[in-house]
Amino acid sequence: MTSGRIPVVGRGSFTSRYRWGGRAIVLRIRLLASLLLAPLLVGCFASSGGGSSDDASGGGRLRVGLAFPPAENLSPYGADATILTRLGVTEGLTSLDANGAAAPALAASWRQEGARTWVFTLREATFQDGTAVTPAAVAASLTHATEAEPAPAALAGVGLTAKAAGDTDVRITTDDPDSVLPLRLSSPSLAVLSAKAYGADDRVDLVGTATGPFELTKVMGSTAATLDRYDDYWGGRAQAPGIDVKFIPDGTARTSALRTGQIDLAEAVPVAQAASLDQGIRKATATTRTTSLLLNSASGPFEAAALRAAARQAVDTSVLAEDVYEGYADAGAGIYGPAVAWAEGRRTAPLGRAEAAKAEGTSITLATYDNRPELPEVAQVLKQQLEKAGFDVTVELREYSRLESDALDGKFDALVLARNTLVDTGDPVSVLASDYTCDGGYNLAQLCDKDVDRAVAKAEDAVDTAERQDAAMAAEAEILGTDAVVPLVHQRIITGVGTSVRGALLDPYERTLVGLGTRR
Questions:
Q1: For residues 406 and 22, what is the distance between their CA atoms, to the nearest angstrom?
Q2: Between β-strands 169-174 and 102-104, what pairing exists: parallel, antiparallel or unpaired?
Q3: In this protein, which residues make up the domain named Solute-binding protein family (predicted)?
Q4: What is the 3 state secondary structure string of 211-264?
Q5: Strand 94-96 vs strand 242-247: parallel, antiparallel, or unpaired?
Q6: Looking at the predicted structure, is the pLDDT value of residue 505 above 60?
Q7: How big is the CA angle at 297 (ends 293 and 302), to the nearest 5 degrees?
Q8: In the prediction, which pLDDT does 221 show?
Q9: How far apart are CA 182 and CA 169, in angstroms?
Q10: Tell me: the pLDDT tens digits for 230-267?
Q11: Which residue, 191, 222, 475, 504, has fewest beta-carbon neighbours within 10 Å?
């Protein structure tokens, strides 16, 4: 492995995750090779990469195994943004509290001025390069985000202008009224960075330019990264002196590294590996993540609604929840799962479903990725169920970073995707707009339906919280009625937490993992 500073990211240089996508995945079965891979990866982890191994107070550096290597060169604007928030590197003006409401972060408070303008009052803070977090710096950072191509998911369909307003305030004006702007600004893809992050050619450098309690100092390609504590963090001094990160896509290897004491925290422990860990170190957390079967409704066999209906009827979600996920999931009920507590009581039946056609001899390609280790098995079970209904199914499997660009080019007939419905903004309507409308930035199903667009637009216009939730569920009924998405399971994420670790952040929104109090 070679080491060096984090690569500089050009805003237009990566294919982000916001179009529909490719599917070429060579199915890889979990065999002895997975077990042989574990010691190789574990051995590669040993070097701390910088900083002392222990803090003066006796706390050691945290060793973290993550499932997803950077897919976009750690761009702050796309899918990799969540890696940065989970490790405590970046933060925005707001955050999400346990109830999914906007909470203070770099902004200590905010108020609304008219229908389209909000004023955010900043707390006293500094960037990791030592410069002050000023209204001008925040406004410039948000402006860069609005100019990114593709746009961050949190800003899909949203136009905003940010300007400094005095010594402590930032005034943000949206093109249209936006009642959930404080929630939107909690998105990992709207992190605030210092002026040094932005080069003359629109490049973004994350080394020493964020505001979180840990500073990213070194990245070794897609295999490892080093973070050191930022001692002048506004929220106080983190208890861990630093973090050594290893990206370990193979779930068996990741679990083995935890079990053998080579790492302290393991993200996304496979269900099949959970029993190999002592009960005290496997932590299951209900999340807002739903695993779904997305059917390409714009081209190929599933352009026909009747064949989408046939695929939906062929799927038995209870088998997936009970057998594949071994009870660490609930059978799919809708786009929102049980962790979204308000959804169940408001759910209505899908609207306008087509009558299923016979699928005999219809060939389809079903794609998924192996970073979430249950997905290949889900794909195999779906293959059996769909073939029983008459489809001829080819499964393709890749690691996510190698799948993404093809997936974004719309090359698959069907895709199994695990999607946290509230990770981008915390707003239940935003995920519907980005994933299922004609102009949606992450419309993997290529769905373009006037009734769906109308229902989502109505939900976007709702201001009152209860009214917005009701409208979101009405839009969900329209979306499910198209059969472009078949909810499979609502997942409980298993995190491996070593016995010496205290203060790991087990977040249902999957935005955080390591914080000020996380230590060993």
A1: 3
A2: unpaired
A3: 103-442
A4: CCCEEEEEEECCCEEEEEECCCCCCCCCCCCEEEEEECCCHHHHHHHHHCCCCC
A5: unpaired
A6: yes
A7: 75
A8: 87
A9: 14
A10: 999 999 999 999 999 999 999 999 999 999 999 999 99
A11: 222
Task: Locate 435 and state its tokens.
Answer: 């994933």
* Number of neighbours of residue 305 by Cβ within 10 angstroms: 21
CB atoms within 10 A of CB 321: 21
Handedness of CA 204, 209, 210, 212 (dihedral sign): positive
* Structure confidence at residue 54 as a pLDDT band (50, 70, 90): low
C-alpha to C-alpha distance for 16 and 80, rounded to whole angstroms: 10
Helices (H) and strands (E) in the chain, counts: 13, 19
- Residue 186 in tokens: 């909690």
CA–CA separation, 30 and 101 (whole Å)? 40
- Please state, as a whole number, how many other Cβ atoms lie within 10 Å of the Cβ of residue 254: 29
pTM of the predicted protein model: 0.77
Q: Is the preceding omega at residue 135 within 30 degrees of 0, hence cis?
A: no
Would the CA dihedral through 19, 24, 26, 29 be positive or negative? positive
Report DSSP state, residue 475.
H
Integer Cα distance of 205 and 6 in angstroms: 7
pLDDT at res. 435: 92
Pairing of strands 265-266, 62-66: parallel
Task: Please say whether the beta carbons of 6 and 218 come within 8 A.
Answer: yes
What DSSP string runs through 32-76?
HHHHHHHHHHHHHT----SS-SB-TTSPBPEEEEES---SSTT-T
The pairing of beta strand 169-174 with beta strand 160-165: antiparallel
Strand 282-295 and strand 485-497: the pairing is: antiparallel
Q: How far apart are CA 349 and CA 364, in angstroms?
A: 28
d(CA 244, CA 222): 14
User: How are the residues of the chain apportioned to helix, strand and coil, as percentages rounded to the nearest 5?
Assistant: 30, 25, 50
Extract the tokens encoding 351: 């609207």
Q: Beta strand 362-369 with 391-398: parallel, antiparallel or unpaired?
A: parallel
For residue 55, what pLDDT is reported?
54
Confirm if 355 and 309 have CB atoms less than 8 A apart. Answer: yes
Q: How far apart are CA 362 and CA 419, in angstroms?
A: 27
Domains in the chain and their CATH numbers? 9-17+31-90+203-285+493-497 (3.40.190.10), 94-195 (3.90.76.10), 286-492 (3.10.105.10)
Q: What is the number of other CB atoms lying within 10 angstroms of the CB of residue 2? A: 6
Q: For 140-183, how does the pLDDT look when each residue is reduced to its tens digit (9 = 90+)?
A: 999 999 999 888 888 877 899 999 999 999 999 999 999 899 99
Secondary structure letter of residue 13 according to DSSP = S
